[in-house]
Amino acid sequence: SLCSIAAKHTSTSRLNESKRNGPALELLSVLIFSWSAAIRKTEEKSLLVEVMAPVTCIVGSWYMDVDSKLRSAMDSSGATYTYPDPLYILFNPWNKDDTVYMENAEGRFEYVLAHTGIIWRGSYNSLRPSPWKYGHFEENVLDCCLHLLRNVGKLPVQACADPVLVARHISAVVNSSDDQGVLMGNWTSNFAGGVSPVSWTGSHPILQQFFKTKRPVKYGQCWVFAGVTTAVCRALGIPARTVTNYYSAHDTHASATVDQFYDDNGKTVEKLNTDSIWNFHVWNEVWMKRPDLGKEEYDGWQVIDATPQEMSGGIFSCGPASVKAVKAGELA
């Protein structure tokens, strides 16, 4: 008999196909476009086939077709079986060849598997720990994250294989400022029509509501944006953590300084004095290699920030920027 196994990404046509023929009892491995398949077990009317996706595979939901026909009936159309449930392919921090590989087992538990944590708020002299449930294993959360990749913003399908591009996309679509993403910011005292940011205690209710309504959830501030970002990254297999910075400078002039402007008479120029220092700000760090930067020293933790503060590339997104590069002042 002949057997053809085809993997199809849900947002593309058939991308890759692994075909095999020959004695069913042989252990065969066929590599086509970096995909491989091997027969692991044979029975009278069944085969157990292991299909292995490459580390460069597009992250997302896939469907699997199995086409078969008898050698004695090559002219017939044969039979096709479509596995009814989607197959989810994620980034894999356990795989040494993956760009997001994290060697330390404790780190993988803390930054990928852990579904609860603490987000710090308050001020530098009055720290306020806020328990937070990321909930990235809760119902519909992964489907929501894949919806963000496929249908929100402008991320090409091929870019879903690159954690650098995915992380930048996440920083844009977690806020609603220019693409009707997950969360609407509100820094006023009026939260009519929504939920006060201080009332949220987890990411999954926000993601579940967004997935159900396909409309921005009201409302969030920096720690809520960061909590949701951590959940989205971890759900997709990208190690992530939530980071709080106290007495946090907000630079609006891309000068990497907090500037005050005065006129010739020593009076402040209010329209230019837009820089500020916040009592705290919360952003995210994600773990990955940076082959695009050309230096291994920039591998590791990368800053991303989903709070819509300044535009980058015409949209409200930020990062990923190497933490080592930022601390060294290498911002060009």
From TrEMBL:
SUPFAM superfamilies: Cysteine proteinases, E set domains. One of its GO terms (biological process) is proteolysis. Keywords: Hydrolase, Protease. It comes from the Eukaryota. Residues 214-308 form the Transglutaminase-like domain. GO terms for molecular function: peptidase activity; protein-glutamine gamma-glutamyltransferase activity. InterPro entries: Ig-like_fold (IPR013783), Ig_E-set (IPR014756), Papain-like_cys_pep_sf (IPR038765), Transglutaminase (IPR050779), Transglutaminase-like (IPR002931), Transglutaminase-like_sf (IPR036985). This is Putative transglutaminase/protease-like proteinues. It comes from Amblyomma cajennense (Cayenne tick). The lineage of its organism: Eukaryota, Metazoa, Ecdysozoa, Arthropoda, Chelicerata.
